[in-house]
Amino acid sequence: MKSKENCKWALVVPTSMGIRLTPIAQGQPVHKSDRLMMQATSAESNVASVPACLGFPVKVLTTFVKGSPIAQFIKDNLRSRHIEYEGKEVEQGGPWGFRHQINIADTGFGVRGPRVWNDRSGEVGRTLDVKDFDLERLFDREGVRILHLSGLIGALSVETGRFCLELARAAKKYGTKISFDLNYRASFWQGREQELHDIFVEIASVSDVLVGNEEDFQLCLGIEGPEAGGKDIAAKIESFKGMIRQVKKTFPHASVFAATLREVVDANEHLWGAIMLEGETWHVVEPRSIHVLDRIGGGDGFVGGLLHGILREWEPEKWIRFGWATGALATTFLTDYGQPADEEQVWSIWKGNARVLR
Fold first, then answer.
1. For residues 117 and 102, what is the distance between their CA atoms, to the nearest angstrom?
2. Gap between the Cα atoms of 330 and 337, Å rounded
3. What's residue 185's pLDDT?
4. Virtual CA dihedral for 270, 13, 22, 271, nearest 10 degrees?
5. Buried b (16+ CB within 10 A) or exposed e, 234-268
6. C-beta neighbour count of 3 within 10 angstroms
7. 81 contacts: CB under 8 Å, gap ≥ 6
8. Structure confidence by residue, pLDDT tens digits, 57-92
């Protein structure tokens, strides 16, 4: 990783920003709600929120609809989270032209699971193009310690796939570490399996940090692993280790491999854990019960905390513990991203200390 003294940016993430609509009445389903809360959202900016809120200089590379009030809302939100942004302003092209993606979700309650509806027609983020960014300035003259890529943006369109590939190649050229969260989505891959497999394999081959669940590693990279979902996730830890060993063998450049472990008791109680291989050393957080307000974004919160620990140059054991706690923190927010007040708050979550702090 490039030294912090020689880098303007601790973390850079490409993303397609949009809005998320959720019922104001907590726990209500969308189809029975007439008042909704609007948030700015993307999986990648969710990751960036943790180190940004805790003081690291962070930037998102994105694109905006020119003159759109939604674009202005997103920019203001990113500033409030201490996240800088860079991106082309694209003409809307009339009412049927470009717009920012819309994510419509409820949190579920008890035995009723959450439901998410994605409306991405005309998404301006699909136009992300490497020619719209000065990569030499970004990676060489300014300097970036970690580039974080997500499979969501990599699979969004042909253009964004190429964009992520060129970012990874530039990061590799200039000595920037690469983090890659595979984030498989079946609807993005339909009819494009070979194309996306090739892109993901190339990015994974130069990545330093690989993150994914059992489904991600199997469907994106073709690595055999345990069956996705199910109960008693703790009993699958050895199977997870076997899968990660295969990933390490196939992608030896990476030095960190991580996955979250989640068993759903009901919509508001999960058993939450994590596993990480750093070098030849295993670090495991056995699943333990957490109360969930909104589960969406927990995985992104984990990655954000993990990368924060790496940027802080802590011992590896602290990376996964901090990531576990920032993932748990994110599930206590009505937004799909966590905004820790400080590191002390995160470590209190890790320690199970929910007492009043006066």
1. 8
2. 5
3. 93
4. 0
5. eebbeebbebbebbbeebeebbbbbbbbbbbeebb
6. 9
7. 45, 48, 49, 52, 53, 337, 339
8. 999 999 999 999 999 999 999 999 999 999 999 999
Q: Tens digits of per-residue pLDDT, 16-65? A: 999 999 999 989 999 999 999 999 999 999 999 999 999 999 999 999 99
H or E stretch at 151: helix 151-154
Say which amino acid occupies 5: E
Q: 186: which residues sit within 8 A by CB, 6+ positions away? A: 219
CA 248/CA 144 separation, integer angstroms: 25
First to last CA, the chain: 39
Helices 343-351 and 316-330 meet at what angle, rounded to 10? Answer: 90
Residue 265 CA from chain centroid, whole number: 23
- pLDDT tens, residue by residue, 279-295: 999 999 999 999 999 99
Structure tokens at 62: 């994105």
The pLDDT of residue 230 is 61
Spatial distance between the Cα atoms of 153 and 140, rounded to a whole number of angstroms: 23
- Name the token pair of 227: 């069956």
C-beta of residue 241 within 8 angstroms of C-beta of residue 263: no
pLDDT computed for residue 239 by the predictor: 87
Confidence at residue 229, expressed as pLDDT on a 0 to 100 scale: 59
Q: Which of 261, 250, 269 is nearest to 287 (CA)?
A: 261
Tokens of 44: 């990648």
Helix 214-221 with 193-206: angle, nearest 10 deg:
110
Contact between 116 and 336 under an 8 Å Cβ cutoff? The reply is no
Q: What is the DSSP letter of 91?
A: P
Cα R_g (the chain), whole angstroms: 19
**Low-confidence stretches of the chain (pLDDT beneath 50):** none
How big is the CA angle at 271 (ends 267 and 274), to the nearest 5 degrees? 125
Q: Are 48 and 148 in contact (CB under 8 A)?
A: yes
